[in-house]
Specification:
With about 350 residues, this protein is mainly α. The protein is built from 13 helices and no strands. α2 crosses α13, α4 packs across α10 and α8 packs across α9. The longest helix has about 40 residues. The chain is elongated, with a radius of gyration of 27 Å. The mean pLDDT is about 75.
């Protein structure tokens, strides 16, 4: 005789199935609506979280100094804003002055591009087309521009879009820093809530995932973005002090190339060559020495700031920075490198996690 204690699986009726489907549809609708509302702020909120995680060790020092979490958060936020706004203002002012100067020179018919120096006669034969175009542009800019009108038009449209994106990105940075400061003030409950979410999503490995994200964010910000900012700042100082034309533009270009792990070389090397032909030897030599130190600093700063090595292959950082810039503008240039690196680290962690044994 069979035991009556055998548990039977509950049958799902048609009415119950319809009820489940309706509930899921309403839930998905509400989630989609929430995401639509938050969509304009997603990048800002994500970057605020990255900033809060990256500067938390510094925030701990500020707490010891000011004794109060709110006061420490306000002081650190103001410090971060000053670090961002002051250089951005100087670069923006330089760009405005340089563009205005170009317009005035065009109106008065003066030369915008200085002629190549005598030393260019000794350059290799492969550089002859470049020198010829340089000479033509210095003698008759209109004729030189006419030869490459289509390419220059496309480049101009792209450049205007990039400059506009930089302005928007700086504004987004400011908002993200302020929100990041608020997150720091409530770091304990926010951190606990984030860990609980990861545990809910990934089970017992959730806490490990959360710790990996924190470590990766700090490594990327220090070793990739931090080194890029330091290199761009050093190069920019050299450009401004040496009187390099359009120094603000070249500084932003150095920052871009440094973030995507190409380095400031594509900008610094042509400028060194130009300065040797357009200015006195002493200024050119001093600038060249300074820029060489700037380029070499990458090999010194990265091991120091990254600690045990890069958090991800260079290709991952490169694709993240370029993809983020294409999809989200200047802010995405930074955030793309961070997010794709985090995704790579989580993928590697998941692949290396041993499979649980299946009990028979």
């Amino acid at each position: 005789m069979e035991s009556n204690n055998v548990q039977r699986s509950p049958t799902i009726t048609f009415e119950k199935l319809v009820d489940i489907i309706i509930r899921l549809a309403v839930l998905l609708f509400l989630l989609g609506w929430c995401l639509t509302i938050l969509r304009p702020f997603v990048l800002i909120l994500m970057w605020a979280g990255v900033i809060a995680i990256a500067i938390y060790p510094l925030y701990s020092i500020f707490i010891k100094l000011f004794r109060k979490r709110a006061l420490a958060s306000v002081a650190l936020t103001l410090l971060m804003l000053s670090v961002l706004i002051v250089p951005s203002w100087l670069v923006t002012e330089s760009l405005f002055e340089e563009v205005s100067h170009i317009r005035e020179l065009n109106k008065t018919g003066q030369l915008v591009i200085p002629p190549p120096g005598e030393s260019t006669a000794n350059w290799p034969a492969i550089t002859k087309p470049i020198v010829d175009f340089w000479r033509l542009a210095s003698e008759n800019l209109q004729s030189a521009l006419t030869q490459y009108a289509d390419q220059l038009k496309s480049a101009g449209v792209w450049l205007l879009g990039a400059v506009a994106g930089i302005g928007t990105g700086v504004l987004q940075f400011v908002i993200s820093i302020i929100i990041g400061g608020i997150l720091l003030a409530y770091s304990t409950p926010v951190g606990s809530a984030a860990t609980e979410i990861f545990v809910k999503l990934a089970g017992k490995n959730g806490e490990q995932f959360a710790g990996t994200i924190v470590t990766t964010v700090r490594s990327v910000v220090k070793g990739i973005l931090g080194v890029a900012v330091i290199q761009a700042t050093m190069a920019g100082l050299g450009f401004f002090i040496a009187g390099v034309p359009y120094a603000g533009v070249w500084t932003v270009a150095c920052l871009f190339f440094a973030i995507i792990q190409v380095g400031a070389g594509p900008v610094a090397i042509p400028i060194m060559i130009y300065m040797f032909s357009a200015t006195d030897t002493l200024t050119a030599v001093l600038l060249a020495i300074w820029l060489v130190i700037t380029l070499i600093s990458d090999n010194i700063l990265k091991p120091l700031l990254l600690g045990r090595g890069a958090p991800a292959p260079m290709l991952v950082v490169f694709l993240g920075a370029i993809g983020g810039f294409i999809t989200s503008g200047f802010l995405g240039l930074f955030l793309g490198a961070v997010i794709l690196t985090i995704g790579y680290k989580l993928l590697m962690l998941w692949l290396n996690t041993p499979q649980p044994s299946i009990e028979q």
